[in-house]
Structures are given as structure tokens and as C-alpha cells.
User: Fold these one by one.
Assistant:
Number 1:
Amino acid sequence: MIRTQIQLTEEQDRALEALAAAEDASKAALVRRAVDLLLSQRSEAERESRRARALAAAGMFRGDGELVSAEHDRFLADAYAGERA
């Protein structure tokens, strides 16, 4: 593990101390749990954002059917590249 120093407000420290005592855990363990939760929520938000962008791109292209079917990955990549430009 890596040692990290953080600063909490007095109120945060008191609340964390009380929670640690109630759960029979260390404050460090609770902070690690909170960081894991924050990171997992961010990952979920990023997955939802990618999903929404993919759904928005669906149906944007017209073609003779064969080209769109064969080249759909390239068309989708081009659409995402244009979004970043």
C-alpha cells in the first residue's frame, strides 16, 4: 500500500472517527472504501456516457445497405472522431 496524507475538516474527522468506531474499522479502511466507491461511480458514469453516444450515432448513416453493413465500425469511429474535433 502507498501511504498518503490527506486533510479533513474537524467535522469530517469526527464523523469518520464515529463511523470507524461503529463499524469496528479503521479510518484508513473507510477512506479506501470511499475512494473505491467514488472510482466505481465514475467508471459507471463513463460507461453510460459511451452507451448514450453510441445510441445517438445509431441510424445516422444512410447508404445502399451493403456498404453500411460492411463498414459500420469505420462509420461509427468517424462519428466519434468528429465529436472530439
Note: The mean pLDDT is 85.
Number 2:
Amino acid sequence: MSDFRVALRQQDSINVLELKGYLDAHTAPKLEEALQNLLSTSRYNIVINCRDLSYISSAGLGVFMAFIEEVRKNNGDIKLTNMSPKVYNVFDLLGFPLLYEIFKEEHEAVTRFFDKGKATPITPR
């Protein structure tokens, strides 16, 4: 089984999930559980830090799609940060930059929750 970990921490009123390892069909339930725990406690401002995410499959991408509607329905958002070029290319290939704001650095995503004009997301190529 692939190695994957999700760590949660709070920065201001933002919930930061740090992903590490391989996010695939075998490990996606760990991310699903972490996101479900946030939603069940009405925490809808979420930053996903992908700094240590080395691989993502379509099953991993599906987790993001499964939760975004409920998050946004509750006036929250999921913002993505710190992707390696390899991981970003997977998101970009499937059009995720049109659906999610993706930032180079975590602090930019956190700032975006408080001031819509300060941080600029990465734009698709």
C-alpha cells in the first residue's frame, strides 16, 4: 500500500491540510475522512498544501470534486498550494485551475480568504 499522510493545522481561521506521499485509490479515503471531519464541524475555509505530495491519481482528484460543492454552498472554499510541477501538471491537464484557485505559497492562499485582491492564483498555461 502507498504511503500517504494528511496533517491538519489551523492558521488564523483557516484549516490547512498538509498532504504527504502518494494520493491514489488506496489512500484517497484518508483525505476524504479529513475533509469530512472538517465539514462535520462546520469548517469550510480550507487550504490544501501539496508541498510534500509526490503523486496524485484520478481517484485523488475525485476527492476534491466530491467536497467542493458542499464547501462552497456553505460560503467556504478549497484553495490549493505548493504543488510540484509534476503534480500541478495533472491538475492543469484536467482543468482544475479553472475550478480551484491554486497558489505557489500557502500564505497567498490564506491571505486570499481575507482579502480577495491581494494574492493572485496561478493561471493555466
Note: The two ends are 34 Å apart (CA to CA).
Number 3:
Amino acid sequence: MPRLIGVRKINIAIFISGTGSNLKNLIRFSRKKNSKFNINLIVSNNSKAKGLILAEKYKITKKIFNYKNLSFSEIKILDELKKYKIDLICLAGFMKILRKNFIVKFQGKIINIHPSLLPKYKGLNTHQRAINNNEKFAGCTVHYVNSKLDSGKIIIQKKVKILKNDDSKKLAKRVLKQEHVLYPKAIKKVLSNL
């Protein structure tokens, strides 16, 4: 893909553990004519992650780390990030918590998408928890990653109305649609500050 003369595209690594629907969406965005970023690397802790099929389909380098030895895996990942000149890490359904030592080395350059309106409902089962508490809105948040779970500075959020007949699956589906809109916007915002 030809690059804009004199303007280097930002190199992104995407970390996944599962289906990779946000990954697929970001790949689509990275291929657009006026995109400011390339996806150079896909990292996963799960060799059976469906999202890895996308790496083959779009010819993006993929690396799988089993995370049995946390510090060893993170050292290896940092080597790969250096090798592929990664400027920004995007977590997209990555089900491992990065350690403080790792985060410090990429301070302000790791972002995550979370399926709730943070600071509410950090962690898992966000949709069911929102429904159980009779919330009027659920949503999604893109935030910077720090050493506390889902606690980094918020970049951008999107509300999704909880409907009367919603269960967690129906709600999750609608929130995911908004995640696909929100994540590219958040990356754009972050890139303007890099």
C-alpha cells in the first residue's frame, strides 16, 4: 500500500484472545485511503483465537504467547514490539492483565476497549451487571491502560440505551456495534497526541 509522502503511518499492534471482531473492524479502517495507521502485528495468548484467522487472511504477522511464565512472555512480546517498530498497542478482547513493568515501557501508548461506561462495571459480565442494576444505559469506553484494571484515563465513550426486553446477549450485540464505531475514532484521537 503506498504511503503518503513524508508522512509515516503509525504502527499498531493489536492484542486479542477471542473472535477478533474489533480487530477485523480496525483492519478495515487501516486499509482505507486516508488511514493514519498500519497494523503490523497481532499478539494473542490463545492459539485457538478465531481472530488469528484474520492475520492469515490479511497477511499480518501474528505471534502467540502461552503466558505460562508471565514475565518471560512479556519480555518476548516487548522484543517483538521493538522488532516491528510498534508505536501503539490496542487491546481488543485481550483476556490477560498486563503487568506494571510492561505498561511502564509503553506508558501512554496502550489503549483498551471495554464494554461498559467506565468507571462503572470494570472487569467481566458488564452487560448482565448493568441490567441487574436497572441501569438506563450501557455502553463502551476506550481508555488508556494503567496498572489498575479498567482504570486508565478515558479517551472516548458511547452510551447505548438498555431496552425493556434486553438480555445480556442482545445488549452485548448492540454495544459491540458501537465499539466498532468508537475504537477507530479513539485511535484517531490518540494518534493526534502521539
Note: The CA atoms of residues 73 and 145 lie 18 Å apart.
